[in-house]
Amino acid sequence: MRWWRRGLVGLGVAVMVFAVVGALTDPDVRPVGHVLFLAGVLVTHDAVLLPLAIGAGVLIGRWVPRRLRVPVRVAGVVTATVLVVAVPLLLGR
């Protein structure tokens, strides 16, 4: 592993440690609520998002010509990301 990759991994670990320590030492934070939220995110990802992504990949593999598969997949990922951010904002949540 190159030195810059080790540096980036170290920086990422340091940021995560900072966030966890900050969350655990803040009196307003309820750790049980965070654990339940993260468990819900994990279940939602594995039960809803992952099958949708696999299904979309299968459909793209069958119906889209080989030279257009990568651009179509990238467009799908970008669209899904924008929707995840924009829909709650549009709904006022």
Topology:
Elements: H1 3-25, H2 31-63, H3 69-91
Transmembrane segments: 33-60, 72-91
Keywords: Membrane, Transmembrane, Transmembrane helix
Major β-sheet, in short? none
* Element-level helix/strand string: HHH
Mean of residue pLDDT values: 91
How many domain modules?
A: 1
In the predicted model, the low-confidence regions spanning at least 5 consecutive residues are none
The first-to-last residue Cα distance is 42 Å
Helix fraction by DSSP (H/I, runs of at least 4): over 70%
Structural class: mainly alpha
Number of helices: 3
Strands, count: 0
* Residues in β-strands, percent: under 5%
Roughly how many Å is the radius of gyration? Answer: 19 Å
Coarse morphology: extended
Offer a concise description of the structure.
This protein has helices spanning 3-25, 31-63, 69-91.
Question: How would you describe this structure in keywords?
Answer:
single chain; 93 residues; mainly alpha; transmembrane; transmembrane helix; membrane
Question: How would you characterize this protein structure?
Answer:
This protein has 93 residues and is mainly alpha-helical. It has one domain (3-91). Helix content is 85%, strand content 0%. The protein contains 3 helices and no strands. It has helices at 3-25, 31-63, 69-91. The longest helix has 33 residues, at 31-63. The protein is extended, with a radius of gyration of 19 Å. The protein starts with a helix and ends with a helix. The chain crosses the membrane at residues 33-60, 72-91. Keywords: Membrane, Transmembrane, Transmembrane helix.
